[in-house]
Design brief:
- This protein has 15 helices and 16 strands.
- By secondary structure, it is α/β, with parallel strands linked by helices.
- Strand 15 (407-412) and strand 16 form a beta hairpin.
């Protein structure tokens, strides 16, 4: 039985953009190698089309509208980090997405948690520096920005004082991605691990953001995937257009952001390789149950939209799932899985006689991977979203996707939204709605959706209001969550 549990998640990682899934570009050599050494499932379904709806599945083994909803981590959910901590594990989380900030509760159960701003430590015996992630350059930029604003207010912009401040500003203030970089996330993980005593098993979670918009990979990666050179300013112009007025983006611009997306995957793939090697050097990797997955996918106008957060088509909710169980030979049989299966699988594979928390709704894939049990036949799994204003949930906008081995059904509570049905073996990208031709299948799917929402986890818990983000709003806006 593996001693350690390692979870690696990548924001916006589509199932069909990995070479191991048949993609014709070499974007993911590290992830491909991990899949070859372990097991790869390309029929894993995320619990929602964005981060807020997907992580209640990944870390809590619940669907997002259970237990008070997904506006933040509700108190009635149990996080897998809490389950590991209760079982004597050291727990370390390195998160680079502001949606999973500690302000929204996602640090629960972690001895050490990086919330994309600062490090939180709940065990004072650990010698780990806390504080924010600003470096000297960003602090200098902040200082000059303050000075510049004062100059704007008091001096002629043609004057020498203004020009001096503007010149300094240009030297220290360049646009950068609105999240902690993958390289810094890996560095932080190593610093935290090096400060841990070695007597306890480890649960480590690292979340990477590079494939998330804005897509701004370094020039060295852009050169590998773009046909023509692209300046930093043009890259940011296209990203700004996609983020603020996506309907006006030209086909050429969409093609460019798709290439930038590939380059971003390659960038994060290299950093995953660094992380794996560092874990191996520190003695954690070879004796670990390791799972890597996307939290959700990304759309490039397959159904008319860009980025993510829309209807739960497979380009948004079908994600790669890679599992490595030490050096054992494992495999995924054919069949659909859900990201709600990740937390119980990690627990079951690393804890002797593990009792899965009663509020986990997934199943352990461990005996299936080892060939001891079959994959459940015709199992329905679900993706949910009910977007309201800002971070709120509005059940009047509830969208539900029900996925089985063969069928994908999308239904809305809004009368004006027609139900959609797709036969996946012949329609991988869900372009041919066959609901009218298959009324019996539609009725069966409606019953399955109704049975899901009749569970106590929905019936007995009111949707909770969202926690205000306060000063995190600017970060969320830069990521496109606020228009």
């Amino acid at each position: 039985m593996p001693r350690h549990a390692i979870l690696i998640t990548v924001d916006c990682l589509r199932y069909d953009r990995l070479s191991v899934a048949g993609y014709d570009r070499l974007v993911s050599p590290t992830m491909d190698a991990l899949a070859e050494a372990g097991a790869f499932c390309d029929e894993a379904i995320a619990t929602g089309p964005n981060t807020r709806t997907s992580f209640p599945g990944i870390l809590c083994s619940t669907y997002p509208l259970m237990y008070g909803g997904y506006a933040q981590l509700t108190g009635t959910r149990q996080v897998v980090s809490e389950a590991f901590q209760d079982r004597g594990f050291r727990t370390v989380g390195v998160n680079t997405n502001t949606q999973l900030h500690s302000r929204f509760g996602w640090d629960r159960g972690f001895n050490v948690y990086y919330n994309n701003e600062r490090t939180l430590v709940d065990d004072q015996s650990l010698d780990i520096e806390t504080g924010n992630s600003s470096d000297d350059g960003s602090r200098a930029a902040e200082f000059v920005e303050t000075a510049k604003k004062k100059v704007y207010a008091s001096l002629d912009q043609d004057g020498l004082p203004y020009r001096l401040v503007e010149s300094a500003y240009r030297r220290v203030a360049t646009r950068s991605e609105p999240h902690t970089s993958a390289s810094e996330a890996v560095d932080r993980a190593f610093r935290y691990l090096d400060a841990l005593p070695g007597e306890k098993p480890l649960f480590l979670w690292v979340h990477f953001m590079e494939p998330h918009s804005p897509y701004v990979p370094p020039r060295s990666y852009r050169e590998q995937f773009l046909d023509e050179p692209l300046s930093d300013s043009e890259m940011w112009r296209i990203n700004d257009k996609v983020n603020t007025n996506e309907a006006d983006a030209t086909d050429r611009e969409v093609s460019i952001i798709s290439d930038l997306y590939d380059a971003s995957i390659r960038e994060v793939d290299d950093q995953i390789g660094r992380l794996v090697e560092g874990l191996r050097e520190r003695g954690y990797w070879e004796d670990a149950m390791a799972i890597l997955c996307g939290d959700h996918g990304e759309e490039f106008r397959e159904h008319g939209e860009l980025a993510h957060g829309g209807r739960p088509y497979d380009e948004l909710v079908r994600v790669p799932l890679i599992v490595r169980r030490g050096d054992e030979s494992i495999s995924f049989p054919e069949g659909v899985t859900s990201t709600i299966d990740i937390a119980p699988t990690l627990l079951d594979s690393t804890v002797e006689d593990a009792t899965v928390p009663r509020r986990f709704h997934g199943l352990s894939l461990d005996p299936i991977l080892r060939g001891e049990e079959p994959m459940p036949e015709d199992r329905p799994v679900f993706s949910q979203v009910a977007a309201g204003g800002w971070r709120e949930i509005d059940l009047n906008n509830r969208l539900t996707a029900c996925r089985t081995d063969e069928w994908k059904f999308i239904t809305s509570v809004r009368d004006e939204d027609a139900d959609e049905l797709f036969y996946i073996p012949e329609d991988q990208y869900e372009q041919n709605d066959c609901a009218a031709a298959n009324p019996e299948t539609v009725d069966a799917m409606i019953d399955r959706v109704a049975d899901q929402y009749a569970l106590d986890a929905y019936e007995n818990y009111a949707i909770e209001d969202a926690v205000e983000p306060d000063d995190l709003g600017d970060q969320l806006e830069a990521l496109g969550y606020v228009k």
